[in-house]
Design a protein that fits this description.
The complex is a heterodimer of chains A (339) and B (323). With 339 residues, chain A is an alpha/beta fold. Chain A is built from twelve helices and eight strands. Helices cover 38% and strands 20% of the residues of chain B. The chains are: A alpha/beta (339), B alpha/beta (323). Chains A and B meet through helix 5 and helix 6 of A and helix 3, helix 4 and helix 5 of B.
Chain lengths: 339, 323
């Protein structure tokens, strides 16, 4: 078991993620948040345990259900909520939205929205670590659906060939959007796919932050010692739909109830109380501090300015072009719209 | 000034940049011990070692994705895609990641990388002979260059390696052996600058890559009849520098756009449209496009030669705009 401070910290982070997602759902209902919104409820232990085991300078890329990972990496919840509100103060300056949260200063290189396509980015980051002789590792977090995509195969093979320090972390929540795993994957114990690349693969209880932490620590050690990549499979479940548009016709109440009994927050809370690591009052105080942080995040997001319309073309190029910048030419001729 | 081949110019640019900057490395299929499918990186592995000359699996998605990830975290990768046609396997990485990460994350990080790849054709049939540059020139966030001479190839490749954005550097298999003057001292050619390849007063020919060379040959022949062509070599397709094209149009009032690719939705379509928008008043005749015939490339050498445009297509088009 971890020490009391860590145990309480993990509790706070998991509650923070859960409440953040609930606030997102509210913001979506009030049309403060637009586009696609994929919430992380149920999977909190995966992010908190796995990311908690990494060093601050290890690199992370993740998928579009990325709020929980960003929070576990300690990105500022104000900047995260502001990003979802599309504001200039957002972590990606309102240009990315829910699926593209990032903070380079925290080596959190972003959420990516094409299934399985971000795995090669983590391979490249690990290539950089090997190239410079650094002991950093990179972690790619992705869903079970990604493992049926070509990017998964190419990335695991390449990382294995070069013995790159990459932790490939599958969040197996049993559904590729609405398709159950037994309907789209030849096997459902996805960590066994590691065998085909001659690398270490391991299943982990994704509803337990401690199990996630320990497995990730082992994986990171394996990577840092030059033994090559590791494939971790977190067995988990999402409590909400795939996105806000999901009517959830594809799964039954019994199954949802089975997983609800394994709620990572409820169970971690019970464990802390049972093992005398926390009192009800301490946990209540944490819940309240999370509420205050959430209120502040929502207020900050709400009150922050939208990006100015004349910044539309900013950031298109890192090395500006002298001629042929059609973007600015078009923008100069355009009527101004504010929605 | 030394006269060297287009291939040698590329080799010099790569080698000099690797010596100048430790963060530059090359990855791609068969680039190390095989030396590259067109021999551009031959011998490099002996000089720079496997760390900096990395043979990869046949995994275009992972090659481009890994180059992007390495670039985001501080290296300057040069990814070689063995044939332009194979780049379709990496389309998602280029369009959705390399080209977008700087904008999409609010300028927090960048992808200083080069993708080198040879276009061209030579009885390789339908899937190995495509002219795909318009697909990439369409994408905001990318820079796309397609040099026609050894001098431009070296200067633009150096600029591409030093640039902080992803640059697609498209070579051409049929011009690797062409020769030209290349200075020994270090120089770069800025990305996004068209150039007057040959001054003239009667007709403007806008072109790039192999068709720019065909256009020069066409102009020489037309000069014997007293027709004086001005040739603008675009060199960069994105950003597209229309300045020299419009300046030339003001002088000649007639334009031919010559490219190797299919006609519909091509570079010629874009250049023509920009001339309509920005130089209509100077036109004395409709813009004429020279382009490839719209079919999958046939294997038979006569059919294939017929399908692609050459010097004679340019000559015919020039005569037509002068009518």
């Amino acid at each position: 078991m971890v020490d009391k401070q860590t145990a309480l910290d993990w509790y706070r982070q998991m509650v923070l993620i859960r409440r953040f997602e609930d606030k997102c759902a509210e913001g979506y209902a009030y049309a403060k948040i637009g586009g696609f919104l994929h919430l992380y409820n149920g999977q909190e232990a995966v992010a908190v345990g796995a990311i908690g085991a990494l060093n601050d300078d290890d690199d992370i890329v993740t998928h579009y259900r990325d709020h929980g990972h960003a929070i576990a990496r300690r990105l500022d919840t104000k900047a995260l909520m502001a990003e979802l509100y599309g504001k200039e103060t957002g972590c990606s300056k309102g240009r990315g939205g829910s699926m593209h949260l990032a903070d380079a200063s925290k080596h959190f290189w972003g959420g990516y929205a094409l299934v399985g396509a971000h795995l090669p980015l983590a391979v490249g980051m690990a290539m950089r670590h090997q190239y410079t002789g650094s002991s950093q590792v990179s972690m790619a977090i992705f869903g079970d659906g990604s493992t049926n995509n070509g990017g998964f195969h190419e990335s695991l093979n390449m990382a294995a060939v070069y013995k790159l320090p990459v932790i490939f972390l599958i969040e197996n929540n049993l559904y590729s959007m609405g398709v159950a795993i037994h309907r789209d994957s030849a096997i459902d114990d996805l960590h066994k796919r590691a065998i085909g690349y001659g690398i270490h693969g391991e299943a982990v209880d994704g509803m337990d932050p401690l199990a996630m932490y320990e497995a990730t620590q082992r994986a990171a050690e394996h990577c840092r010692s030059g033994k090559g990549p590791v494939l971790l499979e977190a067995k988990t479940y999402r409590f909400r739909g795939h996105s806000m548009a999901d009517p959830e016709y594809y799964r039954n109440k019994e199954e949802v109830e089975f997983w609800r009994q394994r709620d990572p927050i409820t169970n971690w809370k019970k464990r802390l109380l049972d093992e005398g690591l926390a009192t009800e009052d301490e946990l209540k105080a944490i819940d309240e501090s999370v509420e205050r942080e959430m209120e502040e995040a929502v207020r900050f997001a709400d009150e922050s300015p939208d990006p100015a319309l004349d910044t539309l073309c900013d950031y298109l190029y890192a090395t500006p072009v002298e001629n042929g910048d059609l973007c600015r030419q078009q923008q100069a001729e355009k009527p101004e719209y504010v929605r | 000034m030394p006269v060297i081949t287009y291939r040698e110019a590329l080799r010099q640019a790569l080698r000099e940049e690797m010596l100048r900057d430790d963060s530059v490395f090359i990855l791609g299929e068969d680039i190390a011990y095989y030396g590259g499918s067109y021999g551009v990186t031959k011998g490099f592995v002996d000089e720079f070692g496997e760390k900096r000359i990395k043979d990869t699996p046949i995994s275009e998605t992972a090659i481009i994705g890994a180059a992007t990830g390495a670039a985001m975290t501080g290296l300057r990768p040069i990814a070689e895609i063995m044939s332009f046609n194979f780049i379709l396997q990496a389309m998602d990485q280029i369009v959705n990641h390399s080209a977008k990460i700087h904008y999409m994350f609010g300028g927090q990080f960048q992808a200083p990388m080069v993708i080198r790849t040879p276009a061209g054709w030579s009885q390789l049939s339908a899937t190995h002979s495509q002219t795909l540059e318009p697909l990439f020139a369409y994408i905001p966030g990318l820079k796309v260059v397609m040099p026609s001479t050894p001098y431009d190839a070296k200067g633009l490749l150096k600029a591409a390696i030093r640039d902080n954005d992803p640059v697609l550097f498209i070579e051409h298999a049929l011009i690797y052996a062409t020769k030209g003057e290349v200075p020994e001292e270090d120089y770069v050619i800025p990305i996004g600058k068209s150039v007057v390849r040959r001054p003239g007063k009667d007709v403007t020919i806008v072109s790039f890559s192999r068709m720019a060379l065909e256009s020069v040959a066409a102009a020489e022949e037309l000069a014997k009849e007293g027709i004086d062509c001005e040739i603008i070599d675009l060199r960069s397709l994105r950003p597209l520098d229309m300045g020299p094209v419009l300046e030339s149009l003001k002088k000649t009032n007639r334009v031919v756009v010559a490219e190797e690719g299919w006609k519909s939705h091509g570079i010629g379509a874009e250049v023509s449209a920009r001339i309509m928008e920005e130089g209509f008043d100077y036109l004395d005749a409709p813009v004429k496009r020279v382009a490839g015939i719209e079919i999958p490339d046939p294997y038979n050498k006569h059919l294939e030669y017929q399908a692609f445009p050459h010097k004679a297509d340019v000559i015919k088009a020039v005569r037509e705009v002068l009518k």
